[in-house]
Every structure is written in C-alpha cells, then in structure tokens.
Amino acid sequence: MGWWFLFGILAAIVANILDRAVFDTTFVSAIVGLGLFLPGLSVAIRRLHDTDHSGWWVLFGIIPIVGWIVLLIFYLRQSDAGENRFGPPPVAVPAA
C-alpha cells in the first residue's frame, strides 16, 4: 500500500503542476483523481483482506475522524502470517 500511496502523491503533484503551468484549470487533476479512484479502492480492500477484515470496512471511512482513525489502524496492522478466510498471505513468511 505504501508504494501505491507514493505513486498517487507523485501523480497528484505532476497533475497540479500541469494544471497551474499549462491549463490554468483543475482539468488534469480531476482526470488523474478519477483514474486513480478505483485502483486505490482496490488496494485499500486488498489491504483490509490481508489483515483479515472484510472489504466493506472501507465504507467506515465515510465517518469523519473516527472512521479514518479506525481504517488507519487496520491499514498499519501487520498482515496475518498464515492463511486467513481471504486466502494465503501476500508475502511468504519464512518458517521459524
């Protein structure tokens, strides 16, 4: 999720620079935001699945402050070491 977040921030910076320097509108930023919305949602749901939570928890982000804090805690938790109800872990953990 970290690399995706970095990519989104860099894309937003480039879009804002293009908006201000070339177009003097927010057209490029809007297109980039719409283009990154569904992949970002997919990454967030995958991260919730890695921590053994349903993807529906992403809707908890609609609640200001409390929802954001709960989702941040879920996103920052370590992934389950073994299989969970959503499948195998994304990164193979060496045996102890």
Helix-strand topology string: HHH
Strand content: under 5%
Structural class: mainly alpha
Distance between the termini: 26 Å
Number of discrete helical segments: 3
Number of strands: 0
Specify the helix fraction band: 55-70%
Anisotropy-based shape: elongated
Q: Could you give a short account of the major beta sheet? A: none
Kindly report the average pLDDT value.
85
Radius of gyration: 17 Å
Low-confidence stretches: none
Q: What characteristics describe this protein?
A:
96 residues; mainly alpha; 3 helices; elongated
Question: Can you walk me through this structure?
Answer:
With 96 residues, this protein is an all-alpha fold. The chain is 59% helix and 0% strand. It is built from three helices and no strands. The two termini are 26 Å apart. The model has no long low-confidence stretch (mean pLDDT 85).
Write a brief structural summary:
The protein is mostly helical and 96 residues long.
